[in-house]
Amino acid sequence: MSSKNLDFGTFAQDVMLGLSASPKSLPSKYFYNSKGDKLFQQIMALPEYYLTKKEFEIFETQYESILEPVLNLGQSFNLVELGAGDGLKTKILLKYLKDIKADFQYFPIDFSGSVLQELKESLHSDFPELSVTCIEDTYRGSLVKRLWDNGKPNLILFLGSNLGNFSLKEAYDILDHLKIGATHGDFVLIGIDLKKDPQTILDAYHDSKGITRDFNLNLLDRINQELDGDIDVNSFKHWPCYDPVSGECRSYLVSLQEQTINLKALDQSFHFEAFEPIFTEISKKYSLSEIDRLAEKGGFVPVQNFTDSENYFADVLWR
Ligand code: AVI
Q: Which residue range or ranges hold the Histidine-specific methyltransferase SAM-dependent domain (predicted)?
């Protein structure tokens, strides 16, 4: 590939922009290639990564209340899921909806084609009669296109603290897009990680097995593979840090030495000073009052907050 022929918005273009910027950064959406998808599955099973377990608890114990408002509409509806992943939590809702013979269609959306393929197969074996339409797209892209729009009301799921992977400013932009996607007086259910003991949060992004480190470093592996790079992955250190004021857990890859990396596919070299960081991910946490403000400023009306027994995580239902 020649650097002159790069399409805007591609991995190559984003790497070029991110590594040329000061401070350097790489978009976290690129974690999710097939290796990254597998590593993320392992992260979700880690004892330190409480987020998945807490949200699972909320779904297991409160699925009826979560679904009550949309079922009370008394009509056929769409269950739309942004960033569906393995659909593990959603399957709890799907099972209940199937048991009560609810009339609905499921639209899982994910940026990762391989994740969608796996989800499609597992849904086919778990719920053979379910009407499923997979959409491979970004959050914003899918919300603007609204491929699911068949005039029926929607319950849009945005689970797993995916909103946390955006800064506050970007989160408002996502909420603006959610309003475009939620046109029929729809409901949105958003999974949000709550502020808590900073150590608990930091441990979730600095696990003892080093899986999160590998997940972060996989960005450099991916650059090596896809852009013909010569990066020595071991010369970078995974460095997460949590700021209890902003609620931002920010992850970096810090160059342990002064070095120049070469990306042949881009015809480009990038220089790193010793201990120069690449910012790779934000995982933002909110308090319940900050969530109320988010709803109000974002133009949504809170319907109900669902939290786990330790108040670690919240799934908030808005209209
Ligand atoms: C997908 N996302 C909500 C995860 C998070 O917690 O920010 C991604 C992740 N990054 C490191 N561990 C997990």
A: 11-319
Cα torsion at 287, 292, 294, 295 (round to 10°)? 150
Mutation to probe ligand 1, out of 165, 193, 215 (largest number of atoms < 8 A from CB): 165
Per-residue pLDDT tens over the stretch 221-260: 999 999 999 999 999 999 999 999 999 999 999 999 999 9
Residue nearest to atom 6 of ligand 1 (CA): 283
CA dist 197 → 105, 192, 247, 294, 306 (Å): 39, 16, 11, 22, 20
What ipTM is given for this predicted complex? Answer: 0.99
Ligand 1 atom at minimum distance from 40 CA: 13
pLDDT on residue 204: 98
* Span from the CA of 225 to the centroid of ligand 1 (angstroms): 23
Mutate which of 37, 43, 49, 53 for ligand 1? The one with the most ligand atoms within 8 Å of its CB, which is 43
Q: Helix, strand, coil shares of the chain as percentages rounded to 5? A: 45, 25, 30
Task: Pull the structure tokens for residue 3.
Answer: 């650097």
